[in-house]
Amino acid sequence: MPDSNNTLFYWKPANAFTGALPLGNGRIGAMVYGKTTHEVVNLNEDTLWTGYPNCDSAPESSSHYADLKKAALEGRFKDAEAIFEEYLSRGHSQTYLPMGDLLLDFNHSEKITDYCRALELDRAVATVDYKADGVCYHREYIVSYPHDALVIKISADKTKSVNFKVRLQSRLRSNVYTVDKSKLFIDGEAPSSCYNRNSEGKTVNFMTYSNEPEKRGVQFRGGISVTLDGGELFAAEDSDFLEIKNADSAVIWFKIATSFNGYDRSPFLDGRDYYSVVKNDLDHVGEYDYDAVLKEHTYDFSEFYLRVKLDLGSTPESDLPTDERLMQFFNNPNDPSLFTLAFNFGRYLMISGSRQGSQPLNLQGIWNDKFFAPWRSNYTTNINTEMNYWPAEMTNLADMHLPLIEMVKDIAQAGVATAHDLYGGKGFCSHHNCDLWRKTTPPGNKGKNISLWAYWPFSSGWLCRHVWEHYEYNPDFSYLRDTAYPILKECSNFYLSVLTETEDGLCFAGGTSPENQFYDKNGVRCMIGKYATMSNAIIRDVFINTTKCCDIIGDKDFANRLRETVKKVIPYKIGSQGQILEYDDDYEENEPHHRHISHLYGMHPGEEINLEQTPELAQAVRKSLELRGDEGTGWSLGWKINQWARQHDGDHAYRLMCMQLRFVDPDSPMNYSKGGGTYLNLFDAHPPFQIDGNFAFVSGLSELLLQSRGNLVTLLPALPSEFKEGSISGLCAKGGLEVSLTWENGKLKNAIFMPKQNFDAVVRYDGKQVKVRFIAGQEVTFEG
Ligand code: FUC
Q1: What's the 633 CA to ligand 1 centre distance in angstroms?
Q2: b or e along 166-178 (b: 16 or more beta carbons within 10 Å of the residue's beta carbon)?
């Protein structure tokens, strides 16, 4: 029986992308359908995006921001929106592309029995087993980080039974051909641009390939070589497939490289040597021993995966195949091991999709089969990209956080011009979408009503929380000095340079609250208010965290300046219903159940509102959560799980987790307000597929068991009553602590701390607290 905490398995092949099983090494992504006679594996490479460097540049327009600000502060909100739309918006982000597919055609009968496909999360191996013509076939699929390749082994229990053709196909401009009668290559190019609208403003999707060298897109080359045990390989001259006949087993090695050479370097004029790399690599596969490669892969993967182990128990329902298990959970959520599986799957996705040297996880991680993916499968940074990384530090995957931090480094460079050109500001800033080319300007292309989402220079601030948290979890002075401090300082410099004095205090004047609207005093629906609560919260967050950096570095002047300024930033206001106000006034809400809960940033992911230090504000956050309601898109449910965990209300969080594990039909249309849940392959459904909810589930579950803020570590802060017995090992707390917990009858049995460095902490459990001086490397055990 497969391990219900660590294995997805099915008794039929996938018939949709959201049923296929994901593999990846951060850079190469593969979706395995597990079909029998005609197998499909969707392929991705994380730098295959449309576009080229600086494809979004435009002239300076900061004088218009002064007009916008004036209009907003005078309550002329519609004028402010018009100014933004006409003068401050820039082009849309670029699009993340699929590379194409690897296809396998087997010539055995279509009559199949004994079928099973599985994904073992702890080893990162997908398998397909079945019987055809009396022969048992077995396939194994891995995407190896150490060997940087997709590797598929096909074997049978009868000699000479492995017969198939392997092909590559792509919708990108490309050419498939054989070389040396033994290898199959695909050479191609990504489009220079991607549009949703034609010149008449109609919504049509199209892409263009420019002939101007500086506008040429990312070039790529993929290649396949097959090593055989017995049998023969045929590769006719000028054909587009390899054929394998009468082998005992075969191993397919797929490699890919692109010319992408950094966000600011032309992939055509100044690209990496991608062309010879693939051929050179494939020339060596004959020297590889598949078993050794597999061993190295599972060792590499499980080193991260096994750092955390969760046990919530299981029931007979836990042994069902994953699809049936999900369906039955919908009617009767009596399967605690499904929570564990979803938790483990989220960590699996992070290790598979975000590795040192790779791009960070986008809206679909790295797994996208669509030419025109929802929201361009870009980096949407007003919640989604950050949410992807919420569990990284706390679930012991700090290494996987690094691609995001690398992207913030790029943004800190690319966003200098944006801060200057749009706001006349110092430092750097970035808005609500980013892409491979590190777009930092507001998207929207002068579209109507784009202020709603595009006018928001706060992703730079929110991303800085990640840069800072990486230090808090792994205190390392050289990282702080060389990475965190300079980035946070320049981010603070932007907000310092644009803060405006109002009668309420300092604020970023003319503010939106991501994608929400309100009715002004005249009953007009507006997007821009005098200011937005989230803007002030992010500014305070950046200032406070930068101050901490400065204190460690010894930059007293800047720290003092920030300490003085932060006191003057407009504080939270409580509205007529006891809720946190989202804008400058108690306006009538346009959509009271709106999916975003941006005004609650201070409670999660921020920390300035919490039950211990600001109980009244925490109560107002609670009220706001109640007013917003539970229903939502996948990521919205996910954010609320985390919020209720910070409210120390595990039972409410549990209800939301059950909602997030609702089965969602792959054909469900896009929905902005409700219907979030889970597809058959456990991918999160917005709907459509969006990976952020997978990660919010992981961080939410972790926050039920362990929370840390500064030097305060709280054990089992929000244990749901349904999780009576259980254990978790290897979670991380700030200050460099690894924590393992066991509980029985809803009460802590013991907690084991392994400090990576000396750290003075306050450990809290069930309202009681003790001060502990942790010494590096010395384990400390608490009995509950
Ligand atoms: C934000 C959300 C949407 C969606 C999109 C990718 O704009 O409001 O629901 O998740 O990002």
Answers
A1: 9
A2: bbbebebebebeb
**What value does the mean pLDDT take over residues 170-187?**
95
- Mean predicted confidence (pLDDT) in 724-749: 98
User: Which token pair is 592?
Assistant: 């009271």
pTM of the model: 0.98
Q: If you average pLDDT over residues 49-66, what whole number do you get?
A: 88
Contact present, 235 and 184 (Cβ < 8 Å): yes
Question: Of 47, 13, 56, nearest to 28 (Cα)?
Answer: 47
Give the other-Cβ count within 10 Å of 711's Cβ. 17
Tell me the mean pLDDT in the region 515-536: 98
Segment 49-78 mean pLDDT: 92
Q: Is 381 in the pocket of ligand 1 (CB under 6 A)?
A: no
Residue type, 83: I
Q: How far apart are CA 289 and CA 286, in angstroms?
A: 8
Give CA separation, 145 vs 20, 190, 295, 611, 755, in Å.
21, 24, 12, 43, 29
Cα distance between residue 718 and residue 650, in whole Å: 4
For ligand 1, say whether the CB of 378 is within 6 Å of any of its atoms. Answer: no
Q: Is the pLDDT of residue 284 over 90?
A: yes
The CB of 384 under 6 Å from ligand 1? The reply is yes
Helices (H), ranges, 499-649:
533-553, 556-568, 615-628, 634-646
Give me 279's structure tokens.
Answer: 């051929």
500 sits in the region (left: phi over 0; alpha: psi -120 to 50; else beta) called beta
